[in-house]
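hey m, so remember when u said the C-alpha coordinates were messed up on ur end? i reran from scratch. heres the input so u can diff it against urs
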Amino acid sequence: MAELALIATLTAITDAQGRVSDRVDNNTANKRAIRFNVRIRSGGTGPDLGVGYLFYFHRQDDETTSHQDDGVGESDADLSVQPSSSELVGSIILTADINTVYQTSFVVYDPGPFWSLSFWNDSGQTIHATEGDHYLRYVYLD
Protein backbone atom coordinates (compact mmCIF):
# COMPACT_ATOMS: atom_id res chain seq x y z
CA MET A 1 0.00 0.00 0.00
CA ALA A 2 1.09 3.53 -0.71
CA GLU A 3 1.73 6.03 2.05
CA LEU A 4 -0.90 8.72 2.45
CA ALA A 5 -0.26 12.23 3.75
CA LEU A 6 -2.29 13.62 6.61
CA ILE A 7 -3.58 17.15 6.16
CA ALA A 8 -1.93 19.19 8.91
CA THR A 9 -0.22 22.55 8.50
CA LEU A 10 3.13 22.25 10.27
CA THR A 11 4.79 25.63 9.77
CA ALA A 12 6.57 27.58 12.52
CA ILE A 13 4.70 25.97 15.41
CA THR A 14 5.96 27.62 18.56
CA ASP A 15 6.84 25.93 21.85
CA ALA A 16 3.84 24.68 23.87
CA GLN A 17 1.62 24.71 20.78
CA GLY A 18 0.46 21.99 18.42
CA ARG A 19 -1.56 21.01 15.40
CA VAL A 20 -4.20 18.34 14.82
CA SER A 21 -4.68 16.71 11.41
CA ASP A 22 -7.90 16.40 9.47
CA ARG A 23 -10.07 13.54 10.66
CA VAL A 24 -9.65 10.30 8.69
CA ASP A 25 -12.65 8.08 7.92
CA ASN A 26 -11.91 4.41 8.68
CA ASN A 27 -15.59 3.50 9.13
CA THR A 28 -16.02 1.56 5.87
CA ALA A 29 -12.54 0.07 5.47
CA ASN A 30 -12.35 -0.86 9.17
CA LYS A 31 -8.56 -1.23 9.15
CA ARG A 32 -7.02 -2.49 12.38
CA ALA A 33 -3.47 -1.08 12.34
CA ILE A 34 -1.70 2.03 11.05
CA ARG A 35 2.02 2.79 10.68
CA PHE A 36 2.91 6.47 10.88
CA ASN A 37 6.07 7.96 9.40
CA VAL A 38 6.73 11.49 10.62
CA ARG A 39 9.35 14.12 9.98
CA ILE A 40 9.86 17.43 11.81
CA ARG A 41 12.70 19.90 11.30
CA SER A 42 13.89 22.07 14.17
CA GLY A 43 14.13 25.81 13.62
CA GLY A 44 16.96 28.32 13.54
CA THR A 45 17.29 28.33 17.31
CA GLY A 46 18.30 25.01 18.80
CA PRO A 47 15.70 23.22 20.90
CA ASP A 48 16.30 22.51 24.55
CA LEU A 49 18.38 19.35 24.96
CA GLY A 50 16.41 16.28 25.98
CA VAL A 51 12.90 17.62 25.38
CA GLY A 52 10.77 16.58 22.48
CA TYR A 53 8.14 16.51 19.81
CA LEU A 54 5.08 14.51 20.81
CA PHE A 55 2.42 12.74 18.72
CA TYR A 56 -1.08 11.98 20.04
CA PHE A 57 -3.72 9.71 18.51
CA HIS A 58 -7.38 10.79 18.72
CA ARG A 59 -10.18 8.25 18.24
CA GLN A 60 -13.73 9.24 17.36
CA ASP A 61 -16.79 7.01 17.18
CA ASP A 62 -19.61 7.14 14.64
CA GLU A 63 -22.52 7.76 17.00
CA THR A 64 -24.97 10.66 16.66
CA THR A 65 -23.59 12.20 19.84
CA SER A 66 -19.97 11.69 18.96
CA HIS A 67 -17.19 10.78 21.38
CA GLN A 68 -13.82 12.23 20.41
CA ASP A 69 -10.62 12.00 22.45
CA ASP A 70 -9.75 15.47 23.77
CA GLY A 71 -12.52 17.04 21.60
CA VAL A 72 -9.90 18.20 19.09
CA GLY A 73 -12.31 18.71 16.18
CA GLU A 74 -12.45 17.29 12.69
CA SER A 75 -10.15 19.50 10.64
CA ASP A 76 -6.57 20.74 10.40
CA ALA A 77 -6.40 23.16 13.35
CA ASP A 78 -4.12 24.76 15.93
CA LEU A 79 -3.88 23.30 19.42
CA SER A 80 -3.17 25.68 22.27
CA VAL A 81 -3.66 23.07 25.01
CA GLN A 82 -1.60 19.89 25.13
CA PRO A 83 -3.79 16.79 24.69
CA SER A 84 -4.45 15.21 28.07
CA SER A 85 -6.82 12.30 27.41
CA SER A 86 -5.58 11.04 24.05
CA GLU A 87 -3.06 8.27 23.56
CA LEU A 88 0.58 9.39 23.31
CA VAL A 89 1.74 7.20 20.41
CA GLY A 90 5.10 8.66 19.41
CA SER A 91 7.85 10.98 20.53
CA ILE A 92 11.17 12.35 19.36
CA ILE A 93 13.77 13.31 21.97
CA LEU A 94 15.84 16.20 20.65
CA THR A 95 19.44 17.30 20.56
CA ALA A 96 20.22 21.02 20.83
CA ASP A 97 21.08 21.30 17.11
CA ILE A 98 19.50 23.89 14.81
CA ASN A 99 17.79 23.07 11.48
CA THR A 100 17.94 19.34 12.17
CA VAL A 101 15.60 16.82 10.57
CA TYR A 102 14.07 14.33 13.01
CA GLN A 103 12.21 11.29 11.73
CA THR A 104 10.46 8.39 13.44
CA SER A 105 7.82 5.73 12.86
CA PHE A 106 5.23 4.20 15.17
CA VAL A 107 2.24 1.86 14.94
CA VAL A 108 -1.29 2.35 16.27
CA TYR A 109 -3.67 -0.58 16.70
CA ASP A 110 -7.48 -0.49 16.76
CA PRO A 111 -7.87 3.04 15.37
CA GLY A 112 -11.68 3.03 15.41
CA PRO A 113 -14.11 4.36 12.79
CA PHE A 114 -12.65 7.90 12.68
CA TRP A 115 -9.29 9.20 13.88
CA SER A 116 -6.77 12.02 13.71
CA LEU A 117 -3.16 12.59 14.76
CA SER A 118 -1.75 15.64 16.48
CA PHE A 119 1.75 17.05 16.84
CA TRP A 120 2.75 18.86 20.05
CA ASN A 121 5.89 21.01 20.23
CA ASP A 122 7.53 20.62 23.63
CA SER A 123 10.99 21.69 22.44
CA GLY A 124 11.39 25.14 23.96
CA GLN A 125 11.69 26.63 20.44
CA THR A 126 9.75 27.13 17.19
CA ILE A 127 9.95 24.43 14.49
CA HIS A 128 11.19 25.33 11.01
CA ALA A 129 8.91 27.65 9.00
CA THR A 130 9.06 25.73 5.70
CA GLU A 131 6.04 23.42 5.29
CA GLY A 132 7.97 21.04 2.99
CA ASP A 133 10.42 20.26 5.81
CA HIS A 134 7.74 18.40 7.78
CA TYR A 135 5.30 15.58 7.15
CA LEU A 136 2.83 13.25 8.83
CA ARG A 137 2.26 10.16 6.67
CA TYR A 138 0.48 6.89 7.26
CA VAL A 139 -0.20 3.48 5.73
CA TYR A 140 -2.70 0.86 6.85
CA LEU A 141 -1.01 -2.43 7.72
CA ASP A 142 -3.93 -4.83 7.19
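this time it looks ok to me. The domain at 4-140 is CATH 2.60.120 (Jelly Rolls). if urs says something different then somethings off w ur setup not the seq
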